[in-house]
Amino acid sequence: GESVGLHLPTLSVQEGDNSIINCAYSNSASDYFIWYKQESGKGPQFIIDIRSNMDKRQGQRVTVLLNKTVKHLSLQIAATQPGDSAVYFCAENQPYSGGSNYKLTFGKGTLLTVNP
Amino acid sequence: DTEVTQTPKHLVMGMTNKKSLKCEQHMGHRAMYWYKQKAKKPPELMFVYSYEKLSINESVPSRFSPECPNSSLLNLHLHALQPEDSALYLCASSWTSGRDNEQFFGPGTRLTVL
After folding, report:
1. Which are the contacts of A60, defined by CB distance < 8 A and separation ≥ 6?
2. pLDDT band at A3 (very low <50, low <70, confident <90, very high)
């Protein structure tokens, strides 16, 4: 089946730098994507989402970019802080068995480490 | 209240035990989910309830039995588990199980099967 994946499993940055986490997807029919942050011992926390009719969406210190031509998604974190250290997952919300239900499929995850 | 709560936080059980995981939300969401997450892996969907009815079962073994008593509660009954079932079990909820629905996750129950 088609799946969502990540280019890099780990990313280490200096505090204050900008971070970019990438994700590749293969299902061209996918039209809704979500980035989650998961800190150690906690459940995934919603960061930002984007629909396929958009190329870019901004939140507080975070930006998600969607390139449908190459099926690529990225999460940019500005002025990365130690509190941003976590595993980041992209997730694809896709139809389930042709019905009205949708299923969230997660990518492998990237571990972001912010060095002080 | 914008939280999904899960109890217990930690659970250790033997292979012959029967236990239950509980999940609760008061956001008025009508879809609730169970996920299993192994260490250093992404969450994997197990079950989806939509309007208190089971709508998706991802071929989960029958030793896991979900239950949705009402729109705010979701249980996962465990019986005769195997050590490989040890994992973090996450509950989530969303307005519906349709498209464009943000899922809110609970903190999870860390399950260890001896």
Report:
1. none
2. very low
